[in-house]
Amino acid sequence: MVLVSILGMSIVPGTLLYFLPLTARLVFAYIFSFLSALMLFPVAQFITGSVVTQISICLYNRKHKPEERFRSEAKQIAKKMGMDYDKPVYVTDNPRVKSPFVNPLTRKIMLPSSWEKKFHRTEIIASLGHEFGHIKGLRAYAKEVFAAMIATMAFTFVLGLFTIPVILVMAEFAFLMLISSYIMRRNEDRADFLGANATAPEWLYICVSAAEKRIQERRGFNHSSSSICKNQSTDASFG
Ligand SMILES: [Zn+2]
Question: What is the DSSP string of 87-108?
């Protein structure tokens, strides 16, 4: 809602600023800067949060080596997806790792040890399938990110012809956040779908109904809203 308001304000009064009376410009500046702060605050929190998490994971792993597990299961899931994978899954006691996550570039999957106590093996396999879905879907995701960048550049270029720099920067940011929340949601759904296909078909039903529910609710991206990620409250960078 905040993002849409910023975009709307940037386009309509934002491009006509010079034609507006001084009071209207002041009211615009006041509301616009308030909305911008509202937009930037959670982003700043997220960035500092994930940086701290990544650093703490690195430091923690040096002292307490993660246990190497699920090598054959991982290999099997990857094989079903048509990938070669010969690495274990790293199980960690680090309390900062609250849910499984993958770094799609190094293809390292981490799993919190608490999950082994909390969940049944099939649920763990299904969540590993989701993480493999992220690895498999990396190319599609990268293409969408590229398309989003082009779209943002085009939008910024056109708007830049008509408005002042400060409005332009905020509008670009709002546009980028809106489009990337859509892409990230698609990325989660794709990982659910690929993972469910390779692990247990019954998960597919849960994934599809969760996706339908989400579309009905039309709410914004939230990694924990992903069906298999439903137990996640991750603050790690890749879920
Ligand atoms: Zn995920």
Answer: --EEEE--TT--S-EEETTTTE
Q: From the CA of 53, how far away is ligand 1's center (Å)?
A: 17
Domain count, the chain: 1
Domain extent at residue 75: 2-226
**What does the pLDDT look like over 136-156, one tens digit per residue?**
999 999 999 999 999 999 999
Query: Is 15 a member of any domain?
Result: yes
CA of 185 to the centre of ligand 1 (A): 9
Residue ranges with CB less than 5 Å from ion ligand 1: 188, 191, 229, 239
Domain contains 140: yes
Tell if the pTM clears 0.85, that is, is over it.
no
Q: What is the 3-state secondary structure (H, E, C) of 14-33?
A: HHCHHHCCHHHHHHHHHHHH
